[in-house]
């Protein structure tokens, strides 16, 4: 049995807003093993990024609140840690790569300044040592002639190169767990291909674990081992990548897969999911997907379905699977 | 192929847009030469009546500039745009207004393309008023309701404001607005890129249904290759201001000929773990459109490069089966 690096247990994140309460993540439970890449996939507003921020303890409170659940990182609950303990964890043990490198990096410091800042604070390196390490890191992420780019500012890099800088910064203190929040979404498809290759190669080489957040099922299909599908604050399906793509069990996952236009062959019409995502301020009762689901039954309107194991390691939260009626 | 006036709705020849980049005062004092950004650099294409031409390429390749040139929202540096056999660029103001009725645009971001201070009734009826298509208030309201129904919205939406709608619904409104003046050509500039995949599928289907119902012709611009494959009859692939390959969608996707088209397709991660992993078959990064060298724009990145590529830009030549490719080394 492989070692579990991160385990989410019934994680719930709520925001108290002026207009009322909003539950952004509701009872999320999954675990990530060492060396594994876990893809968290879902559409805008499904709670993917909030989940990532909760793991990093980056949810501002107030208005945010974590009323329930645990986030076990290497066995200890992150949510119980003091701010000082968190600072020791962030960067050194868990690092994060964001979608928009231009807004995540500081425009008024050079790349070397920014990366060595982390190195000097976390690892106590001298200025000179840090500079040498930055050169190493930049060449590790494939930035050509790193010696020359060291003192450049972020705006002097292209989108793909900026994402490489972000990755170099995330890897700077040898974390063993990386969270990548839509790292290729802002990039063109050819650049996306190189960044994906870089990230997956890096994870394998450094023996890290990765939580990969994306809305792109194509990216999940190639970058991840296990997949969690989120819809309106709930994880609705969980399983190995091959299982999820070959035998999707939740109507939402099926709908998502049917909504994607394919590169080969051509269906004249796609089979989209009807309607649109519910209002999270006033969600429907029972299963959040029932107003859009063609299989909706009475029980779906009343009860929130729990994640149930359908095949070994493959879970879905759907009443269709209650008594083997699927 | 001889152009037949009745079949070809839009024809573009040698269309060019160069932007002169005026440097700041320091660069002028230093005597630096002004740079030229060749956003669109001599492209040719045509669209038959009732067909969908997909224009695909990465950011900065000139797709959107092409859309703005074809609609004369900006004036080209050189080239011709013919609509139904008439030279659009020679049109007077009043004739251009008429032409605008025939060519309508749907933009990428439905949040910024709808006026937040106007009701849906106003947004959808204003184009009809401008073009004198409606006489009475009752007629106007009736047509707006019909439009709403046609794009899948209801009567209750007519007096609401854009902020009360989701992204997908707003894009439906933008499409209804384009249809309000009964156009022949609809240009979609990344009309589904801002939408989530389940909503994107709904809007793609809507585009198709409307085309069938009203005999519309589409110029569909997108960066997503699967979307382009899905919606287009023919496809044109752009790279840094040039069209590098065009042809029927099925043939072009099944057997791409230009090295750039091949690279684009190999880089797409398909939603199927059994398909090959995405990879980049080109070297380096996208070339710059600012003062580009004379040869092929793919120079320095291409696996099939030869000496001639750096010297002469390859013209788009016919290779049979309605396909054209701009490459010296096929």
UniProtKB/TrEMBL annotation, chain A:
Keyword Membrane: yes
Protein name per the record: Nickel import system ATP-binding protein NikD
Enzyme Commission number, as recorded: 7.2.2.11
One BP term from GO: peptide transport
Record Pfam families: ABC_tran, oligo_HPY
GO cellular component terms given for this protein: plasma membrane
Signal peptide boundaries: none
Keywords, sorted A to Z: ATP-binding, Cell membrane, Ion transport, Membrane, Nucleotide-binding, Translocase, Transport
Reactions performed catalytically: Ni(2+)(out) + ATP + H2O = Ni(2+)(in) + ADP + phosphate + H(+)
Principal subcellular localization: membrane
CDD domains registered for this protein in UniProt: ABC_NikE_OppD_transporters
